[in-house]
């Protein structure tokens, strides 16, 4: 959050500061003002770590775990005190230094007459969901869950709601769990709202200012906000890390204003949300069909008795080989999901040789693997999208948020614990995304059906039948 | 107990050995510990770098550069520098996660070499400038020095300048001495620092100590970069 050069040249007015710092909760080191200016501005301190009934609570990330607090003999205040290890990647929160929020006047965000420059059309089901979102924004309805199947066109459904919010002069944040998605979404939003300043916030972003009226951020970035947004849209609430990390829920609750609308987007709601939906505790809207109007592909199961043994010996299972040799449409690219990073790397040359022998690929370089610790992952995904790569072995990182027009999907060892119900539904949702090729094969190779596999298939069938197929 | 690095729970299997001889508490889980490599095998007798020569090319160059009389008598390092180590050091020093220092405690104590230990030696941690110290709130070298069983004296102070890690090799070697002597020491000194990269910092400190009557200067560093 640094723009040092502008600061020294022009003395900033309180209005400038209000625009920049409103809705933020920051460490002193994140506020780029010298001590004089800082004293004169309307910042209020709050204690950064509080102690309550034998508990410590970090006021930035809500961490309460003992093991994530530690003591430091601090040489700036000469006392030994606590610091939070949970959110240390965003700058250390120490007991001796407070957090600051802007307590001056809050700025008025401009009201835009016609912000939306998108001219596409929505399908009937999309329109219905879109209308519900607009209503939620208009009436400041606190929560709305949008349950839309993979490939339903969620982003387009949001446009009307965002337009309405901008017309009313509200501040909006779209939070998503992964930086990849922020990078993908940002140009699309900039195109759809060409006159609005939109900023993308993620670790490693060029401009981490976070002062725009419309922000697209990773959920981690919400840790730096407090009572900032009128409309908060949380994408993929069922996904890692939002699903596992209580501090992100804490942050998202704090980042919205008292009077707010929070819109959750998901294709595979978790149990807790389904229970709330069934009890009518959580308003929701269901989008059962994809934008091209074709049903979701239903995974086929293929039992491989010696699957684990084969994989240990780095042999591709016999049924997998048979499937590869006679796919319905060999022109499609192939996404092969494997449970672990190690397996992805080890199987790549073996599968490449196999495909070479079938003549499906012409050279080994058309097959590669990608995983979360791969430094070239962006480049590889890009070249897969451009069809320079034919086959991609991947871990669950590509399970959601990415769209390839025409692929067949295989999962090796679908019974592994990393493939839970949500993951399998999402993986199946990678196939048949485009209207030119709305079907695609999805095949799970397993050595015994797990609950996750059975539930995933059941829920895909259910979604299809709710969509009228 | 959780692993300091990956926060997984560390499970200790109970056996007769650890019933009767409780082990030192382990700060890392086995998987994370396996990622750190201690230096062993054939290495430079002067600076601990892994090499087939008895004295590595770096040290030969330093000796020449200092006209045959290297101010640093010997360096001993514990760990090799790899990606995991780099991540750990970044989090420890730059993010300021003080706890991570304890990961190295046991190994740093156990490897403290007998060769450079004599009676009446004094440990001197490489200091940070006051500005840097205020920013980080702790000095990683001081933390390491505390682990050692010998008396530690803050004999040096440092003038604020660019971070060493942002400079090139040439800049490090040709830069002016950033240290100031606070109190002269006339006993053998063991300098303690987290990492030996080019050896320029340690030699700056050693030169200053030797100018003011220190007979021998060794260094004991966590990592040989």
UniProtKB/TrEMBL annotation, chain A:
It holds the Pfam family ResIII. The keyword Nucleotide-binding applies. Residues 135-287 form the Helicase ATP-binding domain. Signal peptide: none annotated. GO terms for molecular function: 3'-5' DNA helicase activity; ATP binding; DNA binding; hydrolase activity. Keywords: ATP-binding, DNA-binding, Nucleotide-binding. SMART domains: DEXDc, HELICc. Residues 316-469 form the Helicase C-terminal domain. InterPro entries: Helicase/UvrB_N, Helicase_ATP-bd, Helicase_C-like, P-loop_NTPase. This is Competence protein ComFA. It comes from Oceanobacillus limi. The lineage of its organism: Bacteria, Bacillati, Bacillota, Bacilli, Bacillales.
TrEMBL record, chain B:
InterPro entries: ComF/GntX_DNA_util-trans (IPR051910), PRTase-like (IPR029057), PRTase_dom (IPR000836). Pfam families: Pribosyltran. Gene3D superfamilies: 3.40.50.2020. Residues 161-224 form the Phosphoribosyltransferase domain. SUPFAM superfamilies: PRTase-like. Belongs to the ComF/GntX family. This is Competence protein ComFC. It comes from Oceanobacillus limi.
